Amino acid sequence: MARKSNLPLLLVSYLLGPALVRSCSPLPLVINTWPFKNATEAAWRTLASGGSPLDAVESGCALCEKEQCDGTVGFGGSPDEFGETTLDAMIMDGTTMDVGAVGALRRIKSAIGVARKVLEYTTHTLLVGESATKFAESMGFITEDLSTDASRALHSDWLARNCQPNYWRDVIPDASKYCGPYKPKPHSILKQEDPTYKEKDHCGHDTIGMVVIHKTGHTAAGTSTNGIKFKIPGRVGDSPLPGSGAYADDTAGAAAATGDGDVLMRFLPSYQAVEYMRQGEDPTIACRKVILRIQKYFPNFFGAVICANVTGNYGAACNKLPTFTQFSFMVYNSLKNQPTEEKVDCI
């Protein structure tokens, strides 16, 4: 029997390029928290045009910042107690273990871009606050007002409701009834209980966390967020902290987390997920084990984790709440023709 020629397949490969030809390998891979499809597409296009995993993470998160994904990424969302929007972001190279991050960044729209500059042009990992803004200016970024009519309206409404809800406890005046400024209660002993603030909408997305794995197995991960509404000024969540908001390591895989950053950062969920995968756990199991670990101490926390190993297998898990029973995330790999929203039932 005559052997079939491989010439047509080779011709297609030559004409379309490797990024557009599907194979049995799931790599390259882009996965990100929440159904932020445009961000997923932006990262994939960067890979398809020859960009690195770092380039892909930056472009995906940057688009979310520009589009103000769900009002919780980028400018014009989540005003703090003073009414100001500040930004947190990080980016990590799983090949070199280099990290760049910014926290409480003021008056600069491209937080992920500044984080990339921290990675490339300093030996530091994290810059914060006004000094991070000055660094960004030295790198050529333009300062702008990050407030919008929407964020100003949110803040005005919050003030009109006597600053409810908020994140204070054991202070005077009573933070559950009045605005500050606050002082500690005399001889107050902090109680192991939830703070005054109770998030009403657990489905409110708070971060884009992105994992990219190149066809060569090189990894990168990153995050971008404007934090939580009405936070105490100066608060930085889990997103810009390596191992909390995201983590990448070419010897195992990469992960990203989303949710209540004040709880998540205490457990280094992204680092832990990568370590579980290093031990041979399937990504889905790794993510579930991370959630269960946090659940033991904070059964009602809001959060989810995505992770992928260096072979391109991926998974996700979330903590089940009455208003949060499924978690949506985006996936785009060489086996799919487009970015695909996937869902996982919370545990």
From TrEMBL:
UniProt keyword terms in alphabetical order: Signal
Protein's name in the database: N(4)-(Beta-N-acetylglucosaminyl)-L-asparaginase isoform X1
Annotated family: Belongs to the Ntn-hydrolase family.
Gene for this chain: AGA
Extent of the signal sequence: 1-23
Matches recorded under Pfam families: Asparaginase_2
Protein species of origin: Echinops telfairi
